[in-house]
Write the structure tokens for this entry.
Amino acid sequence: MSTPPRKLRIATTSLAGCFGCHMSFLDIDEHLFELVELVEFDRSPLTDIKEVGPCDIGLIEGGVCNAENVHVLRAFRRNCKTLIALGACAVNGGLPAQRNHLPLSECLREVYQFRPGIANGQIPNDPELPLPLDKVRPIHEVVRVDYFLPGCPPSGPAIWKFLTDLIAGRTPRLSGGLLHYD
Amino acid sequence: MTRQFLLDGQPVPFEDGQSILEAARQAGHYIPSLCWHKDFPAHGSCKLCIVKAAGRHVSACATPAREGWEVESNTPEMNGERRGLLQMLFVEGNHFCPSCEKSGNCELQALGYEYEMLSPRFRHFYPERPVDASHPDVLLDFNRCIFCELCVRASRDVDGKAVFALTGRGIDKHLVVNAESGRLADTDFSKDDLAAHICPVGVILHKGPGFAVPIGERDYDRESIRQKKLRDEEASS
Amino acid sequence: MHTQPPAALDSILHQHGHQPTELLQILIDAQALEGWLPAPTLTDIARALQLPRARVEGVAGFYSFLHTRPAGRYRVLFSDNITDRMLGNAELMDALCRKLWIEPGKLSEDGLVSIATTSCTGLCDQGPAMLVNGRAISQLTHRRINEIAELIRQQRPLDAWPTEYFHIDDNIRRRDTLLSLTMKPGEALAAAIARGRDGWLAEMQASNLRGRGGAGFATAVKWASARNAAGDTKVIVCNADEGEPGTFKDRVLLNSFADLVFEGMTLAAWAVGASEGFLYLRGEYQYLRPQLEAVLARRRAAQLLGADVLGQTGFDFDIRIHLGAGAYVCGEESALIESLEGKRGTPRIRPPFPVTHGYLGRPTVVNNVETLAKTCLIALHGGEAFAATGTAQSAGTKLLSISGDCAAPGIYEYPFGVSIARVLEDCGASDTQAVQVGGASGMCLAAYEFQRRIAYEDVPTAGAFMIFDGTRDLFEVARSFVHFFAHESCGFCTPCRVGTALLKGFMDKLADGHGAQADLADIDWLDRLLKNASHCGLGSAAPNPVIDTLQKFRPAYERRLVSLDFEPAFDLDAALAEARQLTTRDDPGAHLQTHEEDTP
């Protein structure tokens, strides 16, 4: 008699993203029931666990735009055997990286000092707030990444295919209409 | 007597002077390309059509077919190199598909799908390439230029205008237009030029249509670039 | 409002007959007017030549020595070959920048001067070297730099600078058959004409002479192909675009043996039936132009050029000099032809080859300077005598340009087959760690290979021979060559355009202390793709220095790794610096450890 396989532990987070990839994750709909038979969740917006612990799989949505993103990403890398860039922003910086063409000072001054309707504005300097990096980076420029799942967002079926491949021990592949960059 | 070569083990007939790529496509075999166009001489810059012929890496578009050659194209090795070339094209420009009007109709993107390019692999260059919106009918978004020179060739050789040219060198190479001001509006470019309809990516965009055809219902949402190109080839022959 | 071009520009356009093929030459001359090419100048030139302006802009943007932005009245370019670096060019450039209060690569606020680096200027035996407004100055020292700073500050015209600055030595250290040849101009030509065209070509075939540019193609086969090609006007081009880092033998041949070179071109013309000749002279050697023009004039007066050469009815041949303008890729023969036609120096698709479709579609022979000079020996002494020297597959002698760590850098002529060890001994090299033979695109040989021989069948070379002793860091050698290729890539094909830039990024990542084991795997992968997929030899040779040094001097890479796994290419803490400044924060939360291992 073999014991049933251990449930794989999965953590997810969103860095400089819009949670669209997480919404798309929920779009796997009834497969969620299958999924919870196979996996359990560690840190994730779905669980409200605040710190990531040892995991099999980490899903990262969003690019790296500030110091906190770096800390979270590194913690995921330390704890996850397999780390996945989930969605366009994690893969290539996506929409937040559009600011890479502007000096950071211009971005911050525009938002906090010169925007119409702002009087005596100043750039926030509370130590509680993470400082922004000069450029937004895709996550593979900050840590080693094992797999990439592009899309804005990747569709529910693409996420499901990718995860079931991984869980079953197959190298994940996306083809035949599941692979999209938009 | 027709002569033939072997493409991945399949016999492909060819006529004198025909390139490996032309003969293959005519015979219903797909070899990918970005800078090649059936109405223009081979250019050989994108290198997506790279194949191994008689043991040597060559551009299929620029290499005349030869009797008895064994050509490898659809193999893990060649497709791996193609994926690498696609990754290079993606990181050197600013290709943000989610915000691009050409998404779904873009050949670069479609080849990314065809060759299962999942990651950019390298660091992004994030080059500085301002758009030119000066022309009333057409927008130029240089961020997506892959230097296939199809617009250069179409404008020069068919439209008789030479609206476009490349300047700079190496990684600083870039497209310019034929005006001292550098603005498309100051050239004799027209939205009816062949050059206005030949860009395989999202540089030359017609103002207006935008997202009239929604994302998800576009050319390469419906079929792969392999299927489309072979279908186009059949229709034109 | 089509205005006339200014008079000075108009006269340049007239001198060049308003020919589009002269576009590069016109741009070079036009730049001399103001030190750069303002946008209206490009427009004027385009209009006068009836070319699209975009094409003129395309050409102006291709060549390093053409400026489409103001570059100063004094444009100082430090030669940046590895040998210049070993002689301290960086310190000297720094010193000059400090004295003139400017940053490298930027124009001074008063528009007086700009200082930057350029690829090897072919003065490795007497470096560090620089170009000022295109004129070469060698043997730079701190003292000379101080003087130059003063001359620039005083705005002294270049013609009034001390003449010894511009003195270039030949440094010939060893002479064999070619460099000890004394020949009256026309002697070889008369001998070849006496043999008749067929007889002369037969001698060339018997000589087994192979191209000295490195590739080693049989010269007689090239000539015969061009001769048999359809077309009335045939062209002989002497490739004097000696851009391979570490090579300077052509500089010496053109300086002191120009008659041999021009006679060789005329010999080629006689064999091929060519009427038109070009010497494509790299921009870095433009200081040789006046004396070369004088030699050409002398040869015309002696009926060695022009109509009915040496009284031979119907043998009409003349030579024009075309200047390059800072583009290594133009050493590739089809790119050189594009450049001769006044275009961007992009290598063509081959076939067709230049011998059938070359300059303006005409059958064209492109030969190296040294190859052409050697044909004089064959004309004078016969093909068999030539074939009897050197080795079985490499007939004759080879000029080596020796530089780097040795007592006597300069030009050495050896019969083919000479061993690396022998050369090292002769030039006074000791404690030699490695030799880079054939320039950046050549081979890096380690000490265990010094018994190998200079020959096409063993160690082929266009002539560069750079020596590195035990104090040198072979990683930095490879990195400098990678920078060179990235700078010189024409950008035509994807693998070379992007691949050389990526490779440069990886080498810099290691140099900046961000290296990880994963990078070495990526470097390997890039090397392979560059080699396999590039359109021309530049791209496929670009990874050579890295491939060789990774194989033979791997610890030079490994000692730079800060991670056995992965490491970002940039400094994360530095990426917060701008935000720290904007918020005036400096608390611990306002910093990031660069290496993850450091995080508690």
